[in-house]
TrEMBL record:
It comes from the Bacteria. GO terms for molecular function: DNA binding. This is Transcriptional regulator. Transmembrane segments: none annotated. It comes from Phytohabitans suffuscus. SUPFAM superfamilies: lambda repressor-like DNA-binding domains. InterPro entries: Cro/C1-type_HTH, Lambda_DNA-bd_dom_sf, MLTR_LBD. It holds the Pfam family HTH_31. Residues 7-61 form the HTH cro/C1-type domain.
Length: 255
């Protein structure tokens, strides 16, 4: 794609008109139109400003720059590199501090980057091959040999996860699209499957998981790093699971 085509795609993904984007980024609508149609070449500064207002992920900002003939602006250091020591330390502190409740760190494609020891409550009984690296958290959760048989509200939880992935697909990521198609083919979403609607007192979609002789209930939060300038850091997400009822809290603390 040309840089103009990429900009137009991101503008449409964010559901902005040329006028709305031009006003936000303080550029003329005429010039923005010329950039999108290839009649004008954007400056590097203009591209980065437009990408910022379009909330384009760092990886895709580099793609915009390359399409316009500029050098990439954002590095992608390996997580085990010396430059990201502080990031690794922060992750380990967060994971350890969340015990005795499960927490995982994933990348943009839902590959497991790190986890605390309490995640064993979630993964108990899954097929060993699903735990082999590179472990994909979405596949682990919805695969019939993974957590799926133990998820008491599988249709509801499956619908929740697939909707999260569907929103990610707006970025046009081929790897995510292939994973999404794979997950949709797993059992648990057959026509007529009963998708439980959260009650009026609910504040989040719960994960109800059978563990030995109990049914545990969790809700989750997602944390990311603020104002990242490195692609690796920008694409990390920390998913923390909290007990959704007192019985789950007491049981996990007893472990």
């Amino acid at each position: 794609m040309t840089v103009g085509q990429l900009l137009r795609r991101w503008r449409q993904v964010r559901r902005l008109s040329q006028l709305e984007l031009a006003i936000q980024a303080e550029v003329s609508t005429r010039h923005l139109s010329f950039v999108e149609t290839g009649r004008a070449a954007p400056s590097r500064e203009m591209l980065l400003r437009l990408a910022d207002h379009l909330d384009v992920p760092l990886r895709d900002r580099n793609e915009l720059l390359l399409a316009a003939g500029y050098a990439p602006a954002y590095p992608a250091a390996p997580l085990d590199s010396p430059e990201l020591t502080a990031v690794r330390d922060a992750i380990r502190q967060i994971l350890a501090g969340h015990e005795p409740y499960p927490a995982v760190v994933v990348d943009r494609a839902w590959r497991l980057v790190d986890a605390n020891t309490s995640v064993a409550v979630l993964t108990e009984g899954v097929a060993p091959e699903l735990l082999a690296p590179p472990l994909n958290v979405m596949r682990l959760t919805l695969h019939p040999d993974g957590m799926a048989p133990r998820v008491a509200n599988l249709p509801q939880w499956r619908a929740h996860l697939l909707e999260r992935m569907r929103r990610q697909l707006l970025t046009g990521d081929d790897e995510l699209a292939a994973l999404y198609d794979e997950l949709r083919g797993y059992p648990g979403g057959e026509p007529g499957a009963d998708v439980e609607t959260p009650g009026p007192s609910s504040f989040a979609v719960p994960l109800r998981l059978r563990h030995r002789e109990r049914e545990l209930a969790f809700f989750s939060t997602t944390a990311t790093f603020g104002t990242p300038l490195d692609i690796t850091v920008a694409e990390l997400a920390i998913e923390s699971f909290f007990p959704a009822d007192d019985d789950t809290r007491k049981y996990l603390q007893s472990l």
